[in-house]
Amino acid sequence: MKNGQSHLFIPGPTNIPDRVRRAMNVPMEDMRAPDFGDLTKPLFKGLKRVYQMTSGRMFMFPGSGTGAWESAITNTLNPGDRVLMSSFGQFSHLWVDMARRLGLDVHCIDVDWGKGVPVAQYAEILAADKAHAIKAVFATQNETATGVTSDVAGVRAALDASNHPAMLYVDGVSSIGSIDFRFDEWGVDLAVAGSQKGFMLPAGLSMLGVSDKALEASKTAGMPRCYFAFEDMLKLNDDGYFPYTPPTQLFHGLRESLALIEEEGLVNIFARHKRLAEGVRRGIFAWEGCRLCAQDRQWHSDTVSAIVVPDTIDARDVIRFGYDRYRTSFGSGLGKVMGKVFRIGHLGDLNEVMCLAALASAEMALHDAGANVELGSGVAAAQDWFLSSNAVAIGVAAE
Ligand SMILES: *Cc1c(COP(=O)(O)O)cnc(C)c1O
Question: Fewer CB in 10 Å around end: N or C, the chain?
Fold first, then answer.
């Protein structure tokens, strides 16, 4: 079937609003023109508002989120530095892997896939580190592979409880702009985002929020760096220029997506994601034999749900049938949950009926793959929730 629209329910790249897509349809322009800064300078400010960040610096690198991971590490640390990390899904695992490959001395806590950052263990380790050997603490705010959101404020509290000076590094690629993230309030030092998730843009821009403390550290940090170096960016960014060719179309798109974010308001965006996610979750709970990978309510992600299928079927079949028969893309099971999990991304430009479509399509694909899921059960549960809930009912400011 090639008629009608296809349906994208992977947790990034996400659906691009028409307004953003049109905004990117502009002729190529001169990135050294005298007025180029009129386009770029407000973007840094807009991003800082989304990060809830008033000091420090925002960087934009042509690249994907992974580039900002590398930039955060190489600009602020020294070879052999001890860092505290945790691994509980493919993305947190890959950041650990990068840190090791870049030559850091990584103390990694391996956590069950389905839980998140082990805040209590972090607190113990930091309290025991009287010599302050640990230079950096890492947290993946939203583990996209398992649909698990972690408590970044809790990590800050753990650092504060032992007066530990380590810097706090956060991966917010699938949370910033969709789930509450507070750079200032949580004392975050480096926060990574990417254009293709909550910002509703194509891939190609990686964003990095950097605190004043981290900027200071970058002046003496000794890891080799070049393309992602802060110092080259700093020389030119104040006037809105870049040390190499920046993706101008993406800047036009970002200007529009920041306008959309500002029109809706961060609080309302967070509430919408929470409400849509709850609808999807209720749908999943209605499916016999299926469960969320996230082990407990405290971990439930409002941007992506990873669904563990009955062990009599292969989640790869669900994904294949969804794509081949219903033109619906679901996220795959990554790393060690491959074949066991498929994912529904519910972030970005999304509404109730889109979520119902995802559930309806998933029910058919589950059926085709051999699962004993009652058709319409998840859809009905989500419909009930959407009818009975509104922003006030879930305790967040109304529109
Ligand atoms: C998507 C994602 C990344 C990687 O981003 P790329 O843009 O693919 O490099 C990193 N962390 C998380 C949590 C993600 O969801």
Answer: N
